[in-house]
Amino acid sequence: MSLDKLIKQCKQQDRKAQEELYKLFSRKLFSVCLKYSRNQVEAEDNLHDSFMVIFNKIDTYNFKGSFEGWLKRVTVNTVLQKYRKQGAFDALPNNLEDEVSVEVTTDNVSLDYLLKLIQELPDRYRLSFNLYVLDGYSHKEIAEILGISEGTSKSNLARAKMALRNRLEEDKNYLRGSPRGIQTKKI
């Protein structure tokens, strides 16, 4: 079945088509959820919530542009809306300069370990970091998405980088090979 036909059937609330769409995109969208979640269980909850929104809003998809891009955008917005409701973006005192530059060196660090460190960041730092570094949003766009100022976005990013750098420096064992319990893949 073609993707367009599958989407049309989902628009008609066809449960089998929805199940097929879930099977087709759940892995990719889980990866998106994992970037924005504190752990795997939360990512699974966010994936479920995202698919609920996707199936409720699929009528708004107009077959222009990438459907996968639309799915990712809905997923990110769903997760961010959840954090917004939880007050994850309440204003913090802004003790850092807007343009603080903090370099994070990730040489010889496994991606699994780095993802774990990112997931452990406080929500406001993790989400600003992911939107800027991983998804390429500007600080202006992040400010609009999260309902914060551009300065707060820059500060959150700097604090996220600083926290990651400090954590990497604290645990030098991870800079030399694979840590116990974390599998790395050779490419």
TrEMBL record:
Task: Give residue ranges for domain RNA polymerase sigma-70 region.
Answer: 21-87
Q: Which Gene3D superfamilies match?
A: 1.10.1740.10, Winged helix-like DNA-binding domain superfamily/Winged helix DNA-binding domain (1.10.10.10)
Q: Name one GO molecular function term.
A: DNA binding
Biological process terms from the Gene Ontology for this record are:
DNA-templated transcription initiation
Q: Which Pfam families match?
A: Sigma70_r2 (PF04542), Sigma70_r4_2 (PF08281)
Record bears the keyword Transcription regulation: yes
Is Glycosyltransferase tagged as a keyword? no
Keywords for this protein? Sigma factor, Transcription, Transcription regulation
Occurrences of domain RNA polymerase sigma factor 70 region 4 type (ranges)? 112-164
| Family from the record | Belongs to the sigma-70 factor family. ECF subfamily.
PANTHER family with a match to the protein in the record: RNA POLYMERASE ECF-TYPE SIGMA FACTO, RNA POLYMERASE SIGMA-70 FACTOR ECF SUBFAMILY
The protein's name in its UniProt record: RNA polymerase sigma factor, sigma-70 family
Q: What is the lineage of its organism?
A: Bacteria, Pseudomonadati, Bacteroidota, Flavobacteriia, Flavobacteriales
